[in-house]
Every structure is written in C-alpha cells, then in structure tokens.
C-alpha cells in the first residue's frame, strides 16, 4: 500500500510506501529535505506536519521533544505515513536537488577481524551505488532495527565496506556481528555531509574508534585523486589502547600517498615504550595544531569524542563552517 506525501510550498506529490519514512520517500522522489544522522539524534530533518497521520518509529529518539509535538514538528527520518500526509518546509530549509537515495538488497561476502570486537564487513550489491567518501548508509538489520555505518571504501564498484564494533548491550551491533557470509540485508544510502572539500588549504582529520571508516575513505579519495592541498594535512586517530587502532595500517598506507600528510596515533592507555602520543585526541589537537582557525576539520567517532572536539574548536574560535562531522552514534 502507498500513501501520498505532499511537500509544501513546492506542491510536490510523492507516493510513499508503507515501510518508508518521510525522509526516505522524499529523497527517493528527488526532494532535498535536510538531514544529517538518519536515526533521530540531530533533529536536522524536522518538518511541519500540516495534515495527515504519521507513526513514530523511535519514540525515544534524542531529538524528540514535547515542544515539537505542540508545534506539529516531526522527525522525517523516524516518521512513516499512515494516511495521506502533507508536510511543510520553512523558507530556505532546502532548495537544491540531491543525489538519488537508493535501497538495495546486499549480500555479505566477507568479514575481517581488525581489532578486539571490531570487524570490516564487505557487502555486495546488485549494481554499483554512487556515494561520496565520508558518507554513510543505513543498514536494515531487522524489523524497525536500523543502524548507520560509514563506508570505508571508495565508490565505483558493487562493494560496500563498513567498520563496526560489537557492544555487549548493542542490539544492532550484535545482529551485525552475528551475520555470516551469504546473509542478505537491505541497505539504504547515501547519507551524510561530512565529505571532503577538495579546495586547497590546511586539513585536519580526527578519528576515534570505528570513526576511522569515513576518515579512511576520505584519505583514500585524496590519494586516488592525487590531491595536493598545498598545505599540511594532519590525521589524528585515537583509541583506548594500541590494539584498538583498527585499520591503522590501511590508514597509514593511504596517508603515505597524500602530499604533506602525516599520521598521529594517540591512545588513552599507552603501554611502556609506546612511540606515539598518549591521552585523548583533544590533547593531540592542542599540541599539534598551532592555529586551529587556519584549518578545516573533519571529525568522526563516538558522540562523546565528537562533542569534545567540537567544544575545543568552538573555544578556539574555529568557525563552524570549517568543522565537518558525523552526527550519529
């Protein structure tokens, strides 16, 4: 069954399937609703429900609040139409068309252990899916069980690779970790705006834990395209212990191919004789980047780490336009 989704003031009408969120249907129809995280954390996709009824997939989403309910503001990424629906956007909320968001069946072809409880998952899709390095996909791991993971490989093939960690209390991560080669899931992409700006200038990439995936993809992009930013490029990768630095060999290999790029590994619990930095990524930024306002930052990792880096850069008066990050956890 389908419902009609109307977007005002554009007057665009789209058929939305029962299983689709408002965001999914709109992006499939070429309407560029704003979005960032795709799972209800950032609130970037809030729109006004003019009429009709929707079902909220994730009532406990961090961005859901009583004030929005009183104003009929809904999360497009977590709302499904259960009748014909009309939504309204505010002036200037979006204007340009976006790349088509697609949904495909994918087969798990390979799983590689990278670090304790961290694995690289390689999925094969029916046909190549276009995306930009740094973007992410939503993996449908069960009924109403959707999780976001960044691609760590480059586009241009039928392969999508993700780096993910299994958490004892993580429902989604346990389902993903339990998949065996040959398993089939549905993957939706691309999402995210934390992608490489190819303009010249000072670049700083900051990764924490499995946040290495989008940083690795962007460094591979820079290497493959033989980009020379004409300025130093710093890649800071933090983890709890040296063993937790997943994919650092692949990251170092990509960095070695980018002019003026250097790699700094930093761990919280440094063993005796550890040749690199100890502490947190914020410590490394303070000691490594003399003038943060002169750099463009790309940040990916656990929400606490991303928040700490953003706070540090804000206190250093780095313009928000120079900070790009993932907003999902």
Automatic annotation (TrEMBL):
Q: Which residues form the 2Fe-2S ferredoxin-type domain?
A: 3-93
Entry-linked InterPro entries: 2Fe-2S_ferredoxin-like_sf, 2Fe-2S_ferredoxin-type, 2Fe2S_fd_BS, Beta-grasp_dom_sf, Cbr1-like_FAD-bd_dom, FAD-bd_FR_type, FNR_nucleotide-bd, MRET
- Signal peptide positions are none
Location of the FAD-binding FR-type domain: 101-197
PROSITE patterns (UniProt xref): 2FE2S_FER_1, 2FE2S_FER_2, FAD_FR
Domain of life of the source: Bacteria
Q: Which Pfam families match?
A: FAD_binding_6 (PF00970), Fer2 (PF00111), NAD_binding_1 (PF00175)
Under the heading SUPFAM superfamilies, the entry gives: 2Fe-2S ferredoxin-like (SSF54292), Ferredoxin reductase-like, C-terminal NADP-linked domain (SSF52343), Riboflavin synthase domain-like (SSF63380)
Could you tell me what this protein is called? 2Fe-2S iron-sulfur cluster binding domain-containing protein
Organism classification, top ranks?
Answer: Bacteria, Pseudomonadati, Pseudomonadota, Alphaproteobacteria, Hyphomicrobiales
